[in-house]
Amino acid sequence: FSANSGKSDYTQSQPTWIALNKWDYSEFDERVRRVLEAAPQGMIFPRVYIGTPDWWLRQNPDEMEVLDDGSTMPGAALYAMPGENRVYPSIVSQKWREDMGYGLQHLIEHIQSSNYAGHFLGYVLSGLKTEEWYHWGSGLKQMFGYGKPTVAAFREWLRNKYGTLEKLRFAWNNPQVDFETAGVPSREERLGQTKITFRNPSLYMNVIDFYVFWNELIPQTIDYFAGVAKKATKGTKVIGAYYAYMYEFEGRPDFGHNALGTYNSSRNLDFVAVTASYGDRLLGTGGDYQRAPVLSVALHGKLWYHDNDVVSHLARKVMERTYQDKKQMEIDLGRLAATKNATESIRMYRRGAGFALCTGMYEAFFDLHGGYFDAPELMEEIAKLNRMWDRAKRYDRSSNSEILIVSDENSCSYCGFDSEMLSQSLLPTQWQLIKIGAPVDHILVDDLKLIKMDRYKLVVFLNTYNLTDVQRDLVEKKIKKNGRSVLWCYAPGLFNGNQPSLEMLHRLTGLRIVPSSDETFIAPQIELVESKGPLSVAWRNAGLKTMGPERPICKKISVEDSEAVTLGTLPGAASVTLAMRNLGSWISFYAITPTLPAAFYRELARQAGVHVYNDRDDTFYANKSYVVLSANGEGTRVIQFPRPCEEVREAVTEQRLATQTRSYSCELENGETQILRWS
């Protein structure tokens, strides 16, 4: 349930810290009482909002965040706020952190001194916009980040990164800058040119550095409060927070969610909580996808908590009770994919459950507006899924994916402000990757050092525009071998710090990839060329011809390599936008965009030797013991297993469906979801 350690900016709970030495936990205690009345043996896991009491804001004007115009009051309404005009504290302010940390400690001490203390499992920390820890100024043209505490913290960050003035001045290409006077980039610098693919790092490394700092600031703040909670509980409670939305926020650095690596390095955080996507949730065409690289979280010994706020066929009834704005209600009915009946709701539950089961997640259903589960048949389904999850503990649920998707967080800061190229590379691609018919793992490039690569046959680099020497060395040692196929997208490794280099790009990819000297935007598309190669034939048989975003969103980058095989060109031009080159120990592919159909990835995977379970564009997940298929359209489905099965069971009911087989076929309606356990 919702709670706070001072105030909730979203009015989900009444303020608890009402004056300097005055506290009111009556609502908190009442919510605990209601939970335990319903479930006397229940464990409690509150969502604690780290909000700032009004009296503190009035007493500490020097600790506020300042906007680019020197004011502290935003001129535009902030999304999802209750509509009040207000100031915002700088989350890097040491006084703010210490005081709000004291508020959190005081709440925990109240809990630990109560008669219900033994029921507490841990705490989900929430804060900032929509309780999910993204910056107050996210998505606004009005820029935050100019408060005294933020400027001082940025200067300290620069000192830690560069160490010496010579390195800072070289990186920023500015012989006058020093650690005492370096400032937050101006609004004009942060916005940059309206149509530019990448910021020129030799001129605007100050902006790139600021956005890397701005993103790290969020998990560092969360870690501070997690440390307070760990100390107050003597390490006996699990602590986590809402974070890890890089794909969902389209890599936009102003949101602050491009520092999962920093979050993962925390010794105080045990899990990361992430809601289901508000993208395409529809049955059939939609699905659940990873909002950030889940495998990286697991590699650092943390749990991914899938906070599934799926709605149901009761959505209109619930929203009519809670919504004042009927137009917004209709929009949200569509965004949240309200179902038509209980059968469809159950199919949606199973799809989400299968996603979590196969991706190595913990899942909880979150009743978003209160009332979405108020039907006996829905609660019966939840009980069935709970029993399935409990049985699943007996079986090996580790990944058997042969496809690895690699992304990079800092590269996002090299893109132009509100970059549609970056957006198209990260978000729409996710919906295609869950439709391949084979499982997919996602990892941050830095975590290649932690992973065993033996089973991966296809590696896709989504947005690795900037790669350090260490990261390039990891790629050389771990990726480019064993006959593996590697797909590079757009401008892989074009930058290394403040230096762009085509030679670095060539050494990385084994292909001569050349950016246009003209910044004119093009639609990064691929028109497949006529070829007799098996891959080209497979793509044509799948009905593919022209692929990629239809809007002009970036400058042209194409392959100019006589040793490469041309697979596709820019429509109406000779520029090569899809190519491959066999380099002996590995095969290098280049595509101008990763936003390509599931059928493209499916055939590329098959060519790389990946086992494909399903040949249709259905939502699909799998691991070593489970397979999940949610049908996109009605009809017969055939699932091919990677090895002979002793038996195949319907995982929810445990009904045996087949024995001694390598395939399983069934008839499914649109959106119908099957969770199979195979052994």
Could you give the topology of this structure?
Elements: E1 2-4, E2 17-19, E3 22-23, H1 26-38, E4 47-49, H2 54-59, H3 94-112, E5 122-126, H4 148-162, H5 165-172, H6 187-191, H7 201-232, E6 238-242, H8 260-264, E7 271-275, H9 294-299, E8 303-308, H10 315-322, H11 326-335, H12 342-359, E9 362-365, H13 376-392, E10 403-407, H14 420-433, E11 441-444, E12 458-461, H15 469-478, E13 484-489, E14 495-496, E15 499-500, H16 502-509, E16 513-515, E17 521-522, E18 526-528, H17 534-541, E19 546-547, E20 554-555, E21 557-559, E22 565-569, E23 576-582, E24 586-591, H18 598-607, E25 619-622, E26 626-630, E27 635-650, E28 655-668, E29 673-678
Parallel strand pairs: 1-4, 4-5, 5-6, 6-7, 7-8, 8-9, 10-11, 10-12, 12-13, 13-24
Antiparallel strand pairs: 2-3, 14-15, 16-21, 17-20, 18-19, 18-22, 22-23, 23-24, 25-26, 26-29, 27-28, 27-29
Helix pairs in contact: 3-7, 12-13, 17-18
Written account of the structure:
The protein is α/β, with parallel strands linked by helices and 679 residues long. Helix 14 (420-433) links the parallel strand 10 and strand 11. Helix 3 (94-112) packs parallel to helix 7 (201-232), helix 12 (342-359) packs parallel to helix 13 (376-392) and helix 17 (534-541) packs antiparallel against helix 18 (598-607). The two termini are 39 Å apart. The model has no long low-confidence stretch (mean pLDDT 95).
